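Dear support,

I submitted the protein below through the web form. The confirmation email said the job was done, but the results page showed an empty box. After a refresh the structure appeared. I'm attaching both so you can tell me whether what I see now is the final result or a partial one.
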Amino acid sequence: MTATDEPIGNRPAEVGKLLASAAEHAADELDRLVPVGDDIGNQVLPDNARLVRWAAPLFAVCAAILLPWIVIAGITLPARSLSRNYNVAWAGYDVILLAGLVGTAICTLRRSRWLPILSSATGALLAADAWFDVLTTPGGWGLAESVAMAVCAELPLAGVCLWLAWHSQEMTERRLVLLTRRRRTGR
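What the results page shows now:
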């Protein structure tokens, strides 16, 4: 059996490189299609960190997945669970979360100065969603589903959001330093 005859699962490093290459290609295409914002900061020091470039497609996909989930939640959740309009409350919350995911994706694509604010809010929404999903689910399979979603999707995405907020703020500070130096030297 040659190396090319091996099942792909036996070569995790090659699979990782292949996935990274595909993600880079997707990020390059998105950067080509959606221009970076014309903020002065992007003219001084554009933020092309890998995670920043990959975050936009990630959040766009999450937003696309959330759309049908909102419809399912609105239809299948009970209309009352110790409170009126329980289903409307959760579907509405998911609509707000959808807006946060889409906004974060757009701000990330454009390297917008609004990214720290929007990604912080989206991270908080994701963490709160995980918290309340787990704590309000009565038990059984639904609870297992809620915990799995929290651990595998919502909390990791919240972590990415918080990193984006921190990283974007760091970039803003670097840009300010560069702008201040340019101003002092007259360039």
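Response: this is the final, complete result; the empty box was a page-load delay. The helical segments are 12-33, 40-44, 50-76, 86-110, 115-136, 140-185.
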